[in-house]
Design a protein that fits this description.
Layout: H1 2-20, E1 41-42, H2 44-48, E2 56-57, E3 63-68, E4 80-84, E5 93-97, E6 111-116, E7 121-123, E8 130-134, E9 140-141, H3 148-151, E10 152-158, E11 164-165, E12 179-187, E13 202-209, E14 215-221, E15 234-245, E16 248-252, E17 259-264, E18 272-273, H4 276-280, E19 288-290, E20 295-301, E21 314-318, E22 323-328, E23 338-343, E24 348-352, E25 355-360, E26 365-370, E27 377-379, H5 381-385, E28 393-401, E29 410-415, E30 423-427, E31 442-452, E32 455-459, E33 466-470, E34 487-493, E35 499-504, E36 511-512, E37 516-521, E38 531-533, E39 540-541, E40 546-550, H6 557-560, E41 565-566, E42 577-582, E43 585-590, E44 614-617, H7 628-632, E45 641-644
Parallel strand pairs: 1-3, 5-8, 11-12, 14-16, 18-20, 22-25, 27-28, 40-41
Antiparallel strand pairs: 2-7, 3-4, 3-6, 4-5, 6-10, 7-8, 8-9, 12-13, 12-15, 13-14, 15-16, 15-17, 19-24, 20-21, 20-23, 21-22, 23-26, 24-25, 28-29, 28-31, 29-30, 31-32, 31-33, 34-35, 34-44, 35-40, 36-39, 37-38, 37-42, 42-43, 44-45
Amino acid sequence: MKKINLYKIFAILFIAISASCVDNNDFELPTIGPDKQYENLKSLNEIIAQYNGDVVEFNDDITISGYVISDDREGNFYKTLVIQDKPENPTVGVEIKIDDANLGARYNVGRKVYVKLKGLALSKPYSAFEIGIKGTGNRTDRIGAEDYVSKIDRSSEIVDIVPTTLTIGELTENHINTLVKIENLQSATKGLQYAYPEDNSYITRTMTSCETFEKIDISTSKFVSFKEYYIPDNQGSITAILDEFSGSYQLVLRDTNDVDFTDEYGCNTPPTDATLSEVKDFYTGSGEATVTKNLKIKVVITSDLATSNLHALSAFAQDATAGIALRFSGDHNLNLGDEVEIAVGGAKLSEYNDLLQLNISPSSIINQTTGTLPTPEVITFAQALTGNYEGKLVQIDGVQFNDNAKTYSGNNELIAECDGTPLTAYVRNDASFANNSVSDKKGTVTGVMTVYKGTAQIYLRNETDVNFTEDYTTCGGGSTPGDADLFISEYAEGSSNNKYIEIYNGTGADVDLTNYTVGLYANGSATVGNTIDLSTIKDILADGEVIVIYNGGASDAAITGSGGTTSTVTYFNGDDAIALLKSGTVIDVVGNIGEDPGSFWAVAGVSDGTKEHTLVRKASITKGNTDWTSSAGTDTTNSEWEVKAQDDFTSIGVR
């Protein structure tokens, strides 16, 4: 009996000594006893399917299983255990929040574990599923240090986890919290350390795919043991757990062994020739798309850098298949007619105000030489309005400027018919020909078709694109097409702060509000004070519609319920001029700018017409008037206005 007891004592001592000699770096504990049997065992997917946006609390005896893929030895997984449902080709992964560290000692990578869910909860505060104890709001908190061992059982099964090999573009939300592998990666910038010297909680380093030219960040905690290690200046694969932050996927390393960079740095495979049409096909119609092949294009520049009618970072280019807008990350020196080869692998395609742009760096230019401009494609005015020629150099015959009494600066409406839809040619204020007067003739216009907020426009490279030699067509009973424009249809200077102005579009066509403003000239000032840009209210004012702009302190329900917009431009008192401007030029006015009337202005024979009255433009008036004396008139017969009583707002919002 004593001998048996002695054997037991020696056996216990042997086990204790053996356990104490386990290398801490192995983080393996012996599994004692056979694996448990669980009656109500469910898959991870069955549990995840219960989530509908609110925290799921588990009150029944339910158990799930999974395989450990995280490792907290190096400090990049803080009080977190990540498991996935299968060791290979997983379908779901989940993060288990635990208020303890050194979890890898008990739950090593590849270990199958069983999680007893009773008393726990499932949440998805961002893009990843979490299991913990019920927290506040739509969150879970960490399982207590004294509780998790009884909640999470280790099985005897330890397997090799096979990462899912994917490209960056193949990553989906289903891969979050699973082990993935991405090949042919290299650091976008050489010579960087994983998480030093920055002092943020998490530091990101961008990796570039030499296969698809897409980019992805690795995210590393500042507390990791390898934060000062340098990322190898080589190329290779990364194995990591996938996460997502602010809509972008990130790779979270367990240790530096996850980075297998052994090949020579550089995406040095020569690019393959491609057409612009093939490159544009990468764009699917929304958001941002990456050119995921190692391609190059050969194009001719169809924009004119010298005239400054395009931003210095922009250009238009064309080949035999298509045209496109180029947007560079820095200044370029591409001139009209240059033929250039551009590497576009990894470049982004995106829309800016509905114009498709190829976003590239000046360093992407492989070769630049003098080329031959493509022959402009002759299209009809109606074809130009379809938007089907975006980015292409075109020629349109039989057009004229709708308003031929202005300079090029700003929006210029081209028309082929007096009552037809116009085509806008926008000219930047700093273009070399911006201050030149537009042609008062009719003829041919050449330019690059573009688009702005869904509406087709034409980009003029220089003034010679306008070749008008024919006689101008006068529209509508002796008035020119340039007469039609927005005007002030109502002005109210009511009691207290019940003040507003109304702008009306009676042009017969929708009007782009880009260059329209309303300005206040207070106390006889010749300089505009408070202003409002009408394009901040809406982009387009449809034909027959009005815009109401009223004082923020207005109390009358007719004003506040008009659907209008408040602005300080209505801080007038009856002796302040207020004007409607287009491209900085006054096109309609109430009161005389630069004049202090001493009291108030007379309107239609009413001596104080602009004080405590509502002025309504007569229905017979179809355009603005910059001559206030003529507009106000001397009596009811020759005035453009009807003078109504104070606080008579019965016609606000309608015309």
